[in-house]
Structure formats: structure tokens, C-alpha cells
Design brief:
By secondary structure, the protein is mainly beta. It has helices at about 25, 75, 90-95, and strands at about 30-40, 45-60, 65-70, 100, 105-110, 115-120, 130-135. Helix content is about 10%, strand content about 35%. Strands 1, 2, 3, 4, 5, 6 and 7 form a 7-stranded antiparallel sheet that branches. The relative contact order is 0.29.
């Protein structure tokens, strides 16, 4: 059926919907998402994938094992033949692009949009555990771009971001 403006009723080009650049999706209270794991063995990682784009993520260490929290891992984003991005995990660790939760009950809250996070046990001992609380938006995860670049995956050996005394 054609309307007075020439658009058919199934024309979705002008239909309002949530998206990454829509601030309303991030201003309202998020839909809760809670998960966790009882075991994260040494040199293992767990990928937590959110059903919608998260606007905030809190990770709580539930064991006396050091856990690393980061946003990018090569196997989730690239094929084995794509050498340009194949070293993401190594770059994340080498560039220290992770947050370390050293002790039981340590926590971190990221106030950033993402569709997944990674939690790894690099402590040398088994028995890691964690809980995750995320505030989800109404934005579909396929609308989210892959996180990469400076501060996420790049290793810049020349940069020195340490504070020096005056």
C-alpha cells in the first residue's frame, strides 16, 4: 500500500531504531545480564558473549587466582589465514591491554560498549572463578564494530605512558 509520501508500508529505511550512535540506548537503565564460571584453569580463557551490546560490564574475581580481563582475542575475530590480525591475544598480553584482578573479591567496571569480553587465568594455578554483571542496551551485537587499535590490540614499543617525577 502506498502512502501519501510514496513510501510503502514495508519501507524500513526511515523507521526509527536503536543503534550504536543513538544516545538514548545508553541513557536508560540497562537490561541485566549475569553469568560466571566456577573454573578457569591455568592458561585458559573464557569468552563471555552478550546477547545485546553492553553499555557497562562489571567483572568480579571469585578466587585467589589472578585473572586478566580484556576485549579482543584473535580466534573470535579472524581466520587462521589472516596474518595481519592473527596475533591479537599475544599483542593484548604484550601491550598489557588487560586489567588484572589479583585477589578474591577484586572487581572492575568498564563503562564502555562491547559485545564480548575475555577472562583468562595466567597465574600458574588452576581454580580461577569469576562473576560478570552487564547492563545491556537494545542495540543488536551485529551492529557493534570489532574493537582494535591503540590501547586494545596494538603494541607500541616506543611509547612510554609511565608518569615521571618532576
Amino acid at each position: 500500500m502506498t502512502t501519501a509520501y510514496g513510501n510503502t508500508s514495508d519501507d524500513v529505511r526511515y523507521r526509527y531504531r536503536q543503534g550504536l550512535g543513538n544516545s538514548a540506548a545508553y541513557q536508560v537503565s540497562g537490561h541485566p545480564f549475569i553469568t560466571g564460571s566456577l573454573t578457569v584453569d591455568n592458561n585458559k580463557q573464557i569468552q563471555v558473549v552478550f546477547p545485546q551490546v553492553a553499555k557497562s560490564v562489571t567483572v568480579i574475581n571469585r578466587a585467589d587466582v589472578e585473572l586478566y580481563v580484556y576485549f579482543v582475542d584473535a580466534p573470535s575475530h579472524v581466520s587462521a589465514n589472516d596474518s595481519e590480525y592473527s596475533g591479537f591475544t599475544e599483542n593484548v598480553l604484550a601491550g598489557k591491554h588487560y586489567i588484572s584482578l589479583d585477589n578474591k573479591k577484586d572487581s572492575i567496571t568498564f563503562d564502555t560498549k562491547c559485545k564480548e569480553i575475555f577472562i583468562a587465568n595466567k597465574s600458574g594455578g588452576d581454580g580461577g572463578a569469576f562473576q560478570v554483571l552487564a547492563e545491556l542496551t537494545s542495540v543488536h551485537p551485529e551492529d557493534m564494530y570489532p574493537l582494535s587499535g591503540s590501547g586494545v590490540t596494538d603494541v607500541d614499543a616506543t611509547a612510554d605512558f609511565r608518569t615521571t617525577g618532576i
